[in-house]
Amino acid sequence: MGRAMSNYSSINEFSDSMNAMQQPLFFDLLPSMATKKSVRVILFPFMAQGHLIPCAALAQMLERWTQFTITLINTPLNIQNLRKALPTNTTIELIELPFNGSDHGIPPHIENTDALPIHLFHSFFQATVELESSFELLLIDISRTDGRPALCLIADVFLGWTVDVAKRLGMFHAVFLPAGAFGMAAFYSLWLHLPHQHTDSDEFGLPDFPETFRLHRSQLDFVERNAHEKDPLYVTVRRQLSLSLGSGGILCNTVKEMEMAGMGLLRKTSRLPVWAVGPLLPLSLFESPSNGKFSNGRSGREPTISSDRCVAWLNLHCPSSVIYVSFGSQNSISALQTMELAMGLEASGKPFIWVLRPPFGHDIGGSFRPEWLPEGFEYRMMERKQGLIIHKWAPQLEILSHRSTGAFLSHCGWNSVLESLSQGVPMIGWPLSSDQFINSKMMVEERGVCVEVVRGMEENVVGQKVKRVIGLVMGGTEKGEEMKKKAMAAREVMKAAVKEHGSSVKTLEDFFRNVDERKTPVFHENGN
What we know:
Blueprint: H1 11-19, E1 40-44, H2 49-65, E2 69-74, H3 76-85, E3 93-96, H4 121-129, H5 132-146, E4 152-156, H6 162-169, E5 172-177, H7 181-193, E6 203-204, E7 215-216, H8 222-225, H9 232-244, E8 250-252, H10 260-270, E9 274-276, H11 295-299, H12 307-314, E10 322-326, H13 335-348, E11 352-356, H14 377-384, E12 387-391, H15 396-400, E13 405-410, H16 414-422, E14 427-429, H17 436-447, E15 450-452, H18 463-474, H19 478-497, H20 503-517
Parallel strand pairs: 1-2, 1-4, 2-3, 4-5, 5-8, 8-9, 10-11, 10-13, 11-12, 13-14, 14-15
Antiparallel strand pairs: 6-7
Helix pairs in contact: 4-9, 5-6, 7-10, 13-18
């Protein structure tokens, strides 16, 4: 649905009119956190699947536990997908924000990084920065219609410029982090300080982290490893991160009980209050057995294979015997790594589902070439019923929630980590970029639910190593059994957090109480 721009001639004129209006206190809206639909909360995610999906889940969480009017703003094509992703009976309002990517050399019909060539990432970020004036006018129009500014604006960490917009319009601003606390604390520290550029050592520490914490250069992606003060992408991203630190606080897609240390580090690196409101997942994932279909309701994308066909294939196999392989919506491995992974999967003898996309350096949305796989591979896997290969999009939640799925070979993007652990499924880590390396490190060292097989797109991988790690995780070993127990324990913690009196629901209520007070709360070392 669209909304006309405001007729106010200036921001100052709008601000004067808003100041004249009576602002209701939050506590006047109790019980049930709020009782008037006229009180609005606005969400604005960054245009990437890993950001849009959890932000839509946050909108649904707000819809479930509050009676605020929830408004989700994004560009037209993303709004189309979000509309498909949300239930038909939702009260969440979707508003389109015009996007002119062609002004920055972005090809037509691309409003999301999942279809964006890497060399255009800086241009895309620049295009999002230039949304500021139209976004501000849109908020003015919404506030004029409501007769008051929104209670708060929750905007993505990569949209740091929204902090100033919220301040000008008298709205409380909160940063939305779609990733985990530990991973984002490291991300802030890396991008704000570039510690690896101040040492010749392959290992280095991070500002605000304990001295015992070390990262290896191999745990940085190509952009991070080569970032410098004159790199345009680095300058743009760093600017948005810096602006985000002027916010009133952070909403993080994590569970407090799972990331106590990470929460402390995130508060330390950001100097902001942090509220853990995750996991931002469909609640039906925690039902036993899971009921309903999740994937289209999670991503808004139609899988290239039906859920029924996937489930029928999984039904052919024993409990916890299938390995699921996927590298997310915008990641891919090299052609050589694709070949070696295929050989390792076949040699393992384990049944698998592989979401297969063209290798890195090729059009990720293009057709897959047979020469990227061992000769006759797909035919052999189909004939033996050992492998189900899916090109482009898979019904991931249906696969992970099936009793036959025993492990997830993953890039360790945070959404995938949460989805896997929500089903008690241990992981085989193959991080490729950004916070994925930190997530993999945490899942291996802190949670004990992951074994890392390869790191990045440049590291050579031998099929025999893939076979060996699959055997370690899924071959009935003591290590594999311990990983499964810990993954199941994580599931129970996550399940408890999103119940009516769970920690994440209580944290959400605490957040809105602090929004009303509009002052920074005092945090204790052991929690919120």
